[in-house]
Amino acid sequence: MNEARATLPGAATANGAPRILVVEDEPALALLLAYNLEAEGFVVDRVERGDEAEARLHEACPDLVLLDWMLPGVSGLELCRRLRAREATRTLPVIMLTARGEEAERVRGLSVGADDYVVKPFSVPEMMARVRALLRRARPERVATTLVAGDLELNRETRRVRRAAREVHLGPTEFRLLEYLMEKPGRVFTRAQLLDNVWGISIDIDERTVDVHVGRLRKALTADQEIDPIRTVRGAGYSFDETYGKR
User: Fold this and answer.
1) Residues 25 and 131 in one domain
2) Which UniProt keyword terms apply here (predicted)?
């Protein structure tokens, strides 16, 4: 198994929270969803149009999408079809929201690739349970309290990192950087992708800043001359070594 091992909690974590994109053109409903998702500890982004959501998804991929069926610009049905056609979003968890409750419509929504289907009006607690359940199935590493690889353990709730018996002291940025890399071991991230997902998509800093923080992270992780679990891929970026702890 080429992934960091994840220990699942009973609810969404407050730190390192999964990101949810709410695509809903009814402001009151979008606000209700955002309020309850944020209360559960999720990070929420909202858009009202299908074409705007598509553009946002090209910039950065969330952990789950709540997608209304009827949207201006591009319909939710068509947007879901496009997401499944793109390699980057082919497995992105999607829950479709609709006022259409007929069986034929549910089948249609699921047939274009939606993972779940919720009919309006819906129970908010049930919706939250569906979100958590889908994330646990599709992205267990994003709802994990603890990420473990070899002798390295990262705990999101305590914000602590240990390597064997040694505590690794990291700054907030180095912690987020390690957390993000450990979630997807083996995947190579460019500096621009790391800036978007670790620092924030609106941040305006030089990409060389990533190199500085990777250097600090490596120094902390290898203070006792341990093997460096961070790989530099020349001309591409950085990744967490998927073979670390398995040799």
Assistant:
1) yes
2) Activator, Cytoplasm, DNA-binding, Phosphate transport, Phosphoprotein, Transcription, Transcription regulation, Transport, Two-component regulatory system
26, two tokens? 């009814």
CA distances from 171 to 141, 179, 193, 202, 220 (A): 22, 12, 20, 21, 10
User: For 163, how many CA atoms within 13 A lie in the half-sphere containing its CB?
Assistant: 19
pTM above 0.70, yes or no: no
Largest pairwise CA distance in the chain? 62
Q: Are residues 128 and 154 in the same domain?
A: no
Q: Is 246 helix (H, G, I), strand (E, B) or coil?
A: coil
Same-domain pairing of 127 and 151: no
Specify if 29 maps to a domain: yes
Q: Consecutive sets of 10 residues in the chain, 247 residues long: mean pLDDT of each? A: 40 58 94 89 91 90 91 91 88 87 64 84 87 81 75 88 92 90 86 80 72 94 90 90 73
Is the separation of the CB atoms in 40 and 128 below 8 Å?
yes
- Domain range for 133: 19-138
Tally Cβ neighbours within 10 Å of residue 18. Answer: 23
Residues 102 and 153 placed together within one structural domain of the fold: no
Identify the burial level of 78 via C-beta atoms within 10 angstroms of its C-beta, where 0-12 means exposed, 13-18 middle and 19 or more buried. Answer: middle
